[in-house]
Amino acid sequence: MQQLLKHYTYCWLVFMAISPVLTAQPTSNPPNIVYILADDLGYGDVSAFNENSKLQTEHIDRLARQGVRFTDAHTSSAVCTPTRYSILTGRYNWRSRLKSSVLSGYSQALIEPERLTVAELLQDNGYHTAFVGKWHLGWDWPFKEDADNIDNLSSNPEVDFSKPVQHGPADQGFTYSYGFSGSLDMPPYVYVENNQPTSIPQDSTVSTDTKGFWRKGLTGSDFNHTLVLPHLTDKAVQYINRQAQGDQPFFLYFALPAPHTPILPTTEFLGKSNTNFYGDFVLQVDDVVRQIVEALEKNGVREKTMIIFTSDNGCSPRADFDELAQVGHDPSYVYRGHKADIYEGGHRVPFIVSWPARIKAAFSTDEVICTTDFMATAAQLTGATLPDDAAEDSYSLMPVLMQEQYQQPLREATVHHSIEGRFAIRQGNWKLILWPGSGGWSAPRSSENLEELPSMQLYDLAQDPAEEKNLVNEHPEKVKQLTDLLSRYVSEGRSTPGSSQKNDGPDRWAQLNWMEQTDSGK
């Protein structure tokens, strides 16, 4: 009820009259929803998406055969925190206070208290909701020191771990939650269950191994880095076992900490891929999918459960691309770049939706979609109406999933974002990058001299999926059209139909310098 009063009221008929976003009727029996988010898994790491993959992900592939395989799916950002924000809010991450980079393990909550989340929407529509895994959206630790400026705190500030955190998953619509605050290489290494730390850490741990790296930080007595993935999987399976006994539909957001660093496959997976430790870790992620699907099957709820599987961004260079290339494997498939980059390898990800009771099995689509689209999809599943100030960048995937007649393309355009906060916009086969370099970790980097490069990049992805031939000088009219469209998306605070909204923070920030050039007619 609190979320209903805080966020929205039901006005379905009015909404349907003014918005083209939701085009189909809500489902009569909303499914259970299990959203599995891998961490730093590349498009080419899943054999269902890469015919040349040296990693045979048999369980993820089976999931693809049981549902829809989206071959042109994108995260809203090329790094983790921003993508997670977009999944839970249906809003581009750069509209939040975080204009670039990611949060730390001690960062304060990124999701605004008044902002509707998909967990709250589902909770208010009869779902039991749960989060298990890597949060990385910030929550408010009970600091013992002044935390007015979190960025100026020490790398391991003093926290009273006996007290609950504030503005955590339990305050964002999750009835049950179990996980940790940042990435598995970011302290503190402490599990938090329903906003309460499960231990009071006394000791610190650190790993300087290239692949098994994690930063020095306080570590709970019940926290073992190598066992985190199987431990979280057990928690997710236990949740399914509990909820499957009742009639209430459930939503499980299972955010894996893998195959992100530290790359720590357990003993049974070491050497299994015949590639390297990263490949072994990917196969362990594949086995996690097996365990989740089997839990649903054993409880007799697989048919009425929608499983969504994807990754938060492209593969990290920590996987060691050169080492993998020696055995003929490319985590980015045919695409340029990797995690952090504005190029396709940074944000094009495997994306699968399976719901045996309603979705036709074994079909693929090249419809362009984004991780922001989950919230509008969930709203249509339940028949809920989204308020004008929520899910501003979310389109329902239901017309595609149900193979209904709909106006194509589903999305007018899709905005991409790099770790440095650099922008790109995709419409049809055209992709305009509003920066001369990668905006991330691959060449050309911002630390290098970019002055001799064109200030923007334009690629025809149909002819040039590897983004090798910059056509910015050949198609000035396309550059202007896409620049104007992105400017409108920024200025109006949304990319879906509806009234204009306000972005958080200043109206303009450093990475919008291209808007100033547009305004001045340059």
UniProtKB/TrEMBL annotation:
Sulfatase N-terminal domain residues: 31-384
Signal peptide: 1-24
Polar residues: compositionally biased ranges: 493-503
Keywords attached to this entry: Calcium, Hydrolase, Metal-binding, Signal
PROSITE patterns according to UniProt: SULFATASE_1, SULFATASE_2
Disordered: region residues: 489-522
A GO molecular-function annotation: metal ion binding
Family to which this protein belongs: Belongs to the sulfatase family.
Protein name: Arylsulfatase
Organism: Roseihalotalea indica
